[in-house]
Amino acid sequence: MLVQSAVLTEADGDPVAVDNAGGRSDVLLVCEHASNRLPEGYGDLGLPADALTSHIAWDPGALAVSQRIAKNLDAVLVYQRFSRLIYDCNRPPTSPAAMRDVSEVFRIPGNENLSEAEKARRTAALYLPFQGRIAQEIAARTKAGRATVLVTVHSFTPVYYGQKREVEIGFLHDRDSRLADRMLAAAADTNLYLIARNEPYGAADGVTHTLEVHAIGPGLLNVMIEIRNDLITDDVGQGFVADFLTGLLRESLVDA
Ligand SMILES: [Zn+2]
After folding, report:
1. Separation of 3 CA from ligand 1 center, angstroms?
2. Is 101 helix (H, G, I), strand (E, B) or coil?
3. Chain centre distance of CA 206
4. Per-residue pLDDT tens over the stretch 97-146
5. What is the DSSP string of 5-21?
6. 181, containing H or E segment
7. Residue 172 Cα, ligand 1 centroid: separation in angstroms?
8. Which residues surround the ion ligand 1 when the cut-off is CB under 5 Å?
9. In terms of DSSP H, where are the helices of 9-167?
10. What is the pLDDT of residues 64-95, one digit of tens each?
11. What is 16-252's CATH topology?
């Protein structure tokens, strides 16, 4: 069991990054799984190198796509600088998925038998500042009379437990499907990508936490976008997908 006195050192830096602060779009982009970086005090958590670069550590390509959409729309982007292996910022502290000791086929030795104190330290170091920064951004806009449309951007693995996933882009929602409905309608005529609602998973899998915390209660338009990560491995793929999603968001928000 790892016992850390401080989760992040000075060299690790801030857990939260904000791109295009001051962006004028109503859209607020969030990328919880942007990075596979581990805080220096945690070593490799006992994982092999291939696990540390795989989808269990982060959402490959999701940050680059988010940054491109942020640029296209002039939108603020908030993202987490550390791996979900330390704390998954799209899960509440009470969820066993917040600090998993198993992910798909990998055991995560450095997360086994975590003490309550260690869980509390990670929550305070990574989750609270991240969700707090999003709340702060929304509160400032509301105070200024500005709307917020919350869009979270993720990627998923093409093969999960040996099963190939056919879907390429998913629009996910919880109880409020307004924006997902509009994006699906806007995408109805495209043959560029295989698109689906609440695929490859949905709210019942606990993936709509950030939407739930910030958007659903106050009634802000919101959607979670999932992109199959083999489509966004390089600049070209990331650019195509980001520009496609930008177009759908613009069309979906015209009369919003
Ligand atoms: Zn994700």
Report:
1. 27
2. coil
3. 13
4. 999 999 888 899 999 999 999 999 999 999 999 999 999 999 999 999 99
5. S-SS-TTT--SEEEEST
6. helix 178-186
7. 12
8. 33, 59, 154
9. 49-52, 62-73, 116-122, 128-143
10. 999 999 999 999 999 999 999 999 999 999 99
11. Aminopeptidase (3.40.630)
